Amino acid sequence: xxxxxxxxxxxxxxxxxxxxxxxxxxxxxxxxxxxxxxxxxxxxxxxxxxxxxxxxxxxxxxxxxxxxxxx
Length: 71
Fold this sequence. Notes:
2 helices
């Protein structure tokens, strides 16, 4: 795995979801005063869909780099 893939993995799987969770909780819980359970289920549901889509994209990117000689 090269550095570009490592950095994009860290950004897409760790930093971006953390920023989304933090901003979603701050915006909807503190500013709009929604219930905690509604905010948590909505944010985690969106993150679940996000992780599935990003994982599929990473899967297709890694399949492109697979060489049968390495097996």
